[in-house]
Amino acid sequence: MSIRQGDPISGLRRLQLLVIAAREHALHLLVISALVVGMGGIFAGNALAAGTLTRLGWATSNNQATATNATYSFSFTTATTGIIAHVAIFVGSGPSGTATVVANYGIGAGAVARVGNTITYTVTAPVSVAAGTPILLELGGNNNNNAAIGNYQSYITTETNIGNAIDGPDFTPIVPFSGSNTAKTVVVVESTTFTLSTASFQLNMDPTLAALADQSDVINLTVQTNANSGYTLTVADSTTGLQCSGCLSTPTIPVAAPSGSYVSFPVAPAAAVGYTVTSTGATIPGGFSAGTRYTGYSSAGLQIASSATSTGASANTIAITDQTAVDYAASAGAYADTITFTVTPNYS
What we know:
Blueprint: H1 11-22, H2 26-38, H3 40-49, E1 54-60, E2 70-77, E3 82-83, E4 86-90, E5 100-105, E6 110-115, E7 118-123, E8 128-129, E9 134-142, E10 150-152, E11 155-159, E12 165-171, E13 175-177, E14 192-196, H4 210-213, E15 214-225, E16 231-237, E17 242-244, E18 252-253, E19 272-280, E20 302-307, E21 316-325, E22 335-336, E23 339-345
Antiparallel strand pairs: 1-2, 2-9, 3-8, 4-7, 4-11, 5-9, 6-7, 10-13, 11-12, 14-15, 15-21, 16-20, 16-23, 17-18, 17-22, 19-21
């Protein structure tokens, strides 16, 4: 059976197709079909409760109606956070052949099987997938020989391990099947590269000497991404200030200012830790004032760089200058902390 552009599909029939896509055992098909006929209102209510997939796409490596072994690419963005165990795809063109997994992005590895028009991708080890996650499945082994020349749609449903819909079913755009043209599809995967120049550093400090009482280290970072809406970069640490596990007196060197409050860094004699940020290509908070104003770390994190667009061929560069000053109020000992940088690309 095929779904062609303009064919009327009743809500009840659509639910029957969804049930067929989600069940394998013949007895289950009979029982569920009876429930759909007798309790259509209940099933309609459950379908409405599912989220709506966005940014749906369907492309084929060969749109000739007689082509064999074509690769179908299905893409979508989740609307609901949930443990996705199955992705059920009703393919309107009604392909034949033995489906294979070519690639999967945004979802765990899995296996694929076809029953009639429905291809089901089953995740090997299902985990929770957050709302707003882009997913791409490339499935090979599709023969177009069941498709007449015309326009077709497919629809996609994400499901729990017992076949309940999480998001969908929602329709993909139209794909034309023809005997006289060639469709070209290029799939560009989501890519973000993030580098960090410094894995660790140590400052040997002495409050007696000015050169050793106020020291800094520069951490250089780069971000390059093809994310449509750019990215954000945040920095956090595990505690407030530097901590000394073996110090009995004054075991903390405090932050120079609360995170997000910008000050001129204290000079010795004083005891404080802070950082400032400069960048080429990225937007940084104005409070840093071209690298002359400092703020303190926090466990909650603070956004220190961002971009509203993809970076293109040239990576954004970000330099964070970590500065520490000590005086005799800081007890002798080894102070430590962990600085965490997080890059979040936005592909929406």
